[in-house]
Amino acid sequence: MSFSILKGWGIVTFFRLLSFLLFFSFFAACDQIPKDPHDTLEKVLRDKRIRVGVIHNPPWTDIRSDVPRGLEIELVQQFASELGASPKWSIVDVDSAMQQLQRGELDIVVGGLLKSSPYREVGFTRPYVEFTPEEGEQRAQVMAVRRGENRWLVTLERFLKGASFRIQPGPTS
Fold this sequence. Notes:
The protein is built from five helices and six strands; from the N terminus they run H-H-E-H-E-H-E-E-E-E-H. The protein is of the alpha/beta class.
């Protein structure tokens, strides 16, 4: 006597049904990947505001005037504009910036951050520019976001990949 789970179904019908169920469950699980556990992108789009931590580091960011200036300031302004949002600048030191980012009080931190940054409790974009200064050590510039906010990170990285900018020599302090 043989027992078959497929008795009366036919093997072809069974595998068609199984394929359909696997296909459907794959797409049902992919509603919004990558995800933001803390909904950063949705909050930015809803509130029309990006909370930006700015660390003084010319020429990337310069906070010596009333309004922050610099290459990364311009990039964030362009990014905010594409999202229909405005940046809200917060002048911070690097340690405070990373702590505020972890707590969700900031959405992005800029300030000439390097890929080799020791701050591992936050997320970093892929390098948006790499260069070798006169000292000879190659540098890779990144921006920081809250760790795990992958949809937000991917949105920022896509913008940076398509952004055009020019690095101009300027004051270093």
